[in-house]
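# nightly structure sweep
# worker-07 picked up a monomer target from the shared queue
# config: single-sequence mode, recycle default, output format = structure tokens
# input follows
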Amino acid sequence: MSHTTIANIATVDEAAEMFGFNRHTLICHIHKGDVPARKIGRTWIVDLEDVEEWTKRPDRERQCAVLELHSDGESAASIANILGIKYRSVQKALNRAGIHVRPGGRPPLTPEDKAEFVKLWNELRSAKKVALALGIPVTTATSRATALRSQGYEVPKLKPGRKHG
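# output follows
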């Protein structure tokens, strides 16, 4: 804590409320050493200037947004869509905060993505062409087709070795 006066100190709960984020986010960053704090009994005390400085760090803005959306119950894929960032960036931000998200893979498809996939599949009638159009492996395209078919989407089965359309 820097030059602290009584007016500048607050509990973690008070600081989190003042700056508009979850108390667990602040406590996590206190434990990581990102925010200086002192524990008096069972209560963490922070200097509001230190908390403000921490929130103004360039990487902090996105990190806070990710953690807030996650605490509101949003999935990693939803957070990536809402913030317009890569799914992997959301994974890293959550992992840094001690929240483990399945590594690798792709985020779940949105209803719009599903509709686009079905439309392409029905137009192109080829897993290879759909894969090329979407920039995904052929095996992923066929797996998606099977998964969507099981969810009730009209995705016709293609016979192997035959040219369609």
